[in-house]
Structure formats: structure tokens, C-alpha cells
Amino acid sequence: MNQKTVSKVLRIAVVVLLNIFIIVLAGYAVNTALQENTQSVETLSKNGSRGDEVRKIQQRLKDWGYYDGNVDGIFGPQTEKAVRYFQSKNGLQVDGIAGPATLAAIGISSSGFGGNSGGGSGAPSGTSDSDYRLLARLISAEARGEPYVGQVAVGAVILNRVQHPSFPNSIAGVAYQPGAFTAMTDGQINQPVSESAYKAAQDALNGWDPSGGAIYYFNPDKTSNKWMRTRPVITRIGAHLFCS
After folding, report:
1. Which of 148, 162, 188, 216 lies at 20 to 30 Å from 209 by C-alpha?
2. What is each CA distance from 218 to 131, 154, 186, 221, 224, in whole angstroms?
């Protein structure tokens, strides 16, 4: 084989090797991207997941009566069943996966319920933005159309429950306690939040309690709950009676 032929063969070999190297690098990049994408999907808490987020989900659902298993940080069939139950009761997609919307509803996500980033001038010092917005959303849903002082009073009742030993010890816990608020089951919680509700949430969080320490309220023209009608009335504001 003469020198010219050898040079030509070497050039072809170099080109082939370069192409192989490029293909290998491209394959590695694609594989890495796929792995990163898979990891990002798997960060959602679902059946098979483990960790602190799962433990928080279990604890909150247990506090609210949706889950009666061990708080062990292992997302198994019992935890999935509890998540599905919570989702079905709160107007969420029932898939058993604790995605962003479900985490927000449970009160773990910092984005706030329903992804509403507008309204209000911010949470008071010492209160998370998600708690503040959830409180405002519940005030708006439960007291829409009530006088402003009545909206603050509804917010105060929610906060009074947080401090009361008979109720969950968080705003999200009180809000999502099964059967506690009709707004959670009739779809009102998903309606746009009024600006007055944001201000009422701020005033309630800052300590204003027009309810006089009430832990219940109801509209006597609408409720048929006989037990609620036996509660000692503290005051009436607008259409609501506030009770101990």
C-alpha cells in the first residue's frame, strides 16, 4: 500500500472515529436529559415515594381525619387512598398523586391554593403567604356579601379554632377539616377572592376579633343543623350568629 493510499485510509478512519465520538456524546446528553426529566417527575409524592414531604402529607391528612396509618414517610397504598379521599372531598383531580395543586390544598406548597398570586398586600409578619391566602380565600367563600366586620369575624373564628384544642392546629388543618365549611364542598372555595377578604385576613391575623372569641358561626336562616342552634350565641354580625 503506497503512502497516498495510507494517508487516505487514515483520514477516513479519523472521520469515522470523530463521527462515532459525536454520536456517543449525543447519546450521553440525551440519556442525561431523560434521567433529569424522570427525576423531576419523580419528585412528586406518589406511591413508592419516601421522605420528609410524604411524612408531612401523612401527618396533615391524619390530623384532619383522612388518614389513619403510620406517619413513616413511606407513600404506600394507604397513603394513596387518603390522598384520593382528600382530593375527592376538595374538588381536586383524583389521581392519588400529591402534585402541586394537592400540595397547595394540603398547605405544604408555598404557591398558595389555586395558584392565585394576585390580590392583597402580603401576609403579616410571622404568617406564611400560603396560610394568608388560604385564609382570605375561605373568608371570601364563606362571608362574601357580609359587612366587612363580619368578614374579619369569620377569619377570627378560623384562627380561634387553630388555637383551640378541639381543632387542628393550623389554618390549612382547620380549613380542610372534613365537614367544617360548606364552601369546601359547594365549590365556593374556587371562586375569585375579593379584595376585602385579603384585608380581612390581614386584620384577623393582626389580632382583631369582632366575634368575641367565637369558634362557630352560622346563618340561622339557612342552617338546619339542630346542634349548631344549641350553641351559646356571643354576637350577631350581618347574617351570621357567632357562638362559643
Report:
1. 188
2. 23, 10, 16, 9, 10
Return the C-alpha cell found at 117. Answer: 398570586
Give the three cell numbers for residue 197. 377578604
Which among 107, 129, 127, 113 is positioned nearest to 193, based on CA atoms?
A: 113
- Does the pLDDT value for residue 110 go beyond 50? no
CA atoms of 38 and 9, how far apart (whole Å): 43
Distance CA 206, CA 222 (A): 30
pLDDT: is 113 or 177 the higher one?
177
Smallest Cα–Cα separation from 185: which of 108, 89, 114, 106?
89
Query: Which pTM does this prediction carry?
Result: 0.53
For 98, what's the count of Cα atoms within 13 Å in the CB-facing half-sphere?
31
Q: Which one is predicted more confidently, 149 or 122?
A: 149
- Cell output for 39: 427525576
Q: Which neighbouring-strand residues pair with 216?
A: 243
